UniProtKB/TrEMBL annotation, chain A:
Protein name listed in UniProt: Brix domain-containing protein
Gene3D superfamilies the UniProt entry points to: Probable brix-domain ribosomal biogenesis protein
Keywords: Nucleus, Ribosome biogenesis
Annotated Basic and acidic residues bias: 35-47
SMART domains from the UniProt entry: Brix
Domain Brix: 59-253
Pfam families: Brix
Region (Disordered) residue spans: 1-52, 290-311
Molecular functions per Gene Ontology: rRNA binding
Source superkingdom: Eukaryota
InterPro entries named among the record's database cross-references: Brix, BRX1
From TrEMBL, chain B:
UniProt source species: Colocasia esculenta (Wild taro)
Keyword field: Coiled coil, Nucleus, Ribosome biogenesis
Residue ranges of the region described as Disordered: 46-72, 94-120, 233-372
Stored PANTHER family: RRNA PROCESSING PROTEIN EBNA1-BINDING PROTEIN-RELATED, RRNA-PROCESSING PROTEIN EBP2-RELATED
Lineage: Eukaryota, Viridiplantae, Streptophyta, Embryophyta, Tracheophyta
Protein name: rRNA processing protein EBP2
Keyword Coiled coil tagged: yes
Amino acid sequence: MGKKRKLEQADAGEAARQDDAAAPQRPKRTLLGWKEGDPNAAEEKRGGGGGGSVFRNKEKVLVTCSRRINSRYRHLMLNVVSLLPHCKKDNKVESKESKGATLNELVELRNCSYCLFFECRKQKDLYLWMARCPNGPSVKFLVNAVHTMEELKLTGNHLKGSRPILTFSMNFNKDPHWMLLKEMITQIFGTPKDHRKSKPFYDHVFAFSIIDDHIWFRNYQVVNQGGIEETTLVEVGPRFCLNPIKIFGGSFGGPTLYENPFYISPNQIRALEKKKKAGKFAKKVKAKTRRKMHELENPLEPDEFADLWKE
Amino acid sequence: MGGGRKVILLGIQWTGGLKTTRPNLRLKPSIPNFVSGALAGSPLLAPLDRPSIPPTAPASPRPAGASRCRPGLWRQMGGMQRKDFLLAKENPLEEADDDIPDENDSEFESDADSEPEEVLLDEPSKKAIYNREGIIEKLEDICWPDNVQWVHKLTIDHNEEQEVDVNDDIVRELAFYTQALEGTRQAFAKIQSLGVPFFRPPDYYAEMVKTDGHMLKVKGRLLEEKKKIEEAEERKKAREAKKIAKEVQARKLKERSKQKKEEIESVKKWRKQRQQNGFRGGKDEDMDFDFDGEKAFEKSKKRKQGVPLGDRSGGKHGFRGQEKGKMKRERRNSKFGYGGRKGLKKQNTSETTDDFRGFNKGDLFRNKRRKG
């Protein structure tokens, strides 16, 4: 804090001096050297509110999860937190409450525009909500194939807070709902330019690609080996696969805009599986009775030689 | 409506060693079914040309690997379909990865006959909502303005050449990798054109996503793996060397026996030659004797040192025995003494004179007896 004030004072002093002398502006000293004289950009930024034509990314993401979340999924959430310098992490939220407006309130309270809510059910199914908060759309995903960053097979590493390059496969532009998802992902996962926690270099790439109607996420480190042509990628993690279930008009609710026609909830699948297993015995019994009926219907003809030796 | 249905298994099995879960299972209505549903005319139809089991296979639900790391289970459940995929793809690598035998295939195939789940499967496609206008409206709502510079977004679209089979881990991961790599290259060009540094300088240290401790673990694991591989190779090499050694030994034995044979042969030859030369009859024995003597002489010349002249076995037989005897003697000498004047040893010293241990035993007994 003290330092900051000092800098400001110095600036003020310098400005005063400059006013006096009416000298050409000196470039500002930064940690890395002299800042490039780009007064236009600075002006743009400052005038962002008034002009309207100039854009500044101010998205903030609230990341939270439900109670009784699995450790693996919790770690996934923490990984996501570490990847998003512009996010705020909140306490666990009671899962039932998510139906209501609690989450919306929470997001508003924390001044965020997006929310990532990791909802764990039955200790095994992870649902991810991406919601634009005051009144934007929200999407519910089923999360599959989760691997966290902690796994030792994923050997990459990158700067914390460096801005990721977001790559999307072409089929994100195919359908309106994919386009919507792409926009949301871009706004959530893209680190705002000049965010105070971000770092000025680019050393990791996110890959979002749709295969078989699932969104697959990968995070790679860009390894500098002299030039861009020799660059290789090493996976950092986490990895997961998102299966969109529904898109709602409001945040955490509202009219349904899209429904995945192929989606079957894991509960249903498990139930079917159970039923199938239960059917085994019933089938056996059925077969037995059928056999009995068959035997009754077609009795054996009395053998003509049956009492041949009994005389 | 209740026409043929397709079961699509979205299986993944990560080849890099991570066993991924089956993300989900898909039960999908056939195309006509789908078109007649709410989504008629939707471009969603496009990706339906992915691998699916032949329509003869009955629809059966499979467990989604809701929890991870259960490749065995899904393989049991979906082994048949998966095999079909494999046959279609003919990917040996994938097959090599298949370490768990699909022993339960037949059982589950037969089990698939029961179809209580049909009603459930139909429902999703019927009810599915697709509000295109609403979605587009929302998209326009949340969209950043059109004139946003690329630097803010950092998005790259990657056009993949062909449809990727989800079940083929290598192909799938490769697709992700190429997408990311292409994206990086494009982004690099764009960022370079903006005049912003892309790579971090080597002397720029900052907090990383993974801690140093974690990276140490990663490194340790890598090293361990490397060591394992090396060890395995070494073992392999040793095995081969052993095999070779065996061969060498066999060759040596063969050679030795051959040499022996040759020697015998040469001796025989020599004898024959001598006979032919005509030293026969009475002088024959003399010659033999002479020869023997000569031979003996030669041998005596070769005789090893340390073998006494009297040793009749030529130092072969007796050498060991003598050694043994020598050892015994030495031990005895060390025990009882050897050489020197005996008289000095036999004289009493002050200690021996004070030592009464050897005396009086008999006296004590006698005294006791007397008292008793």
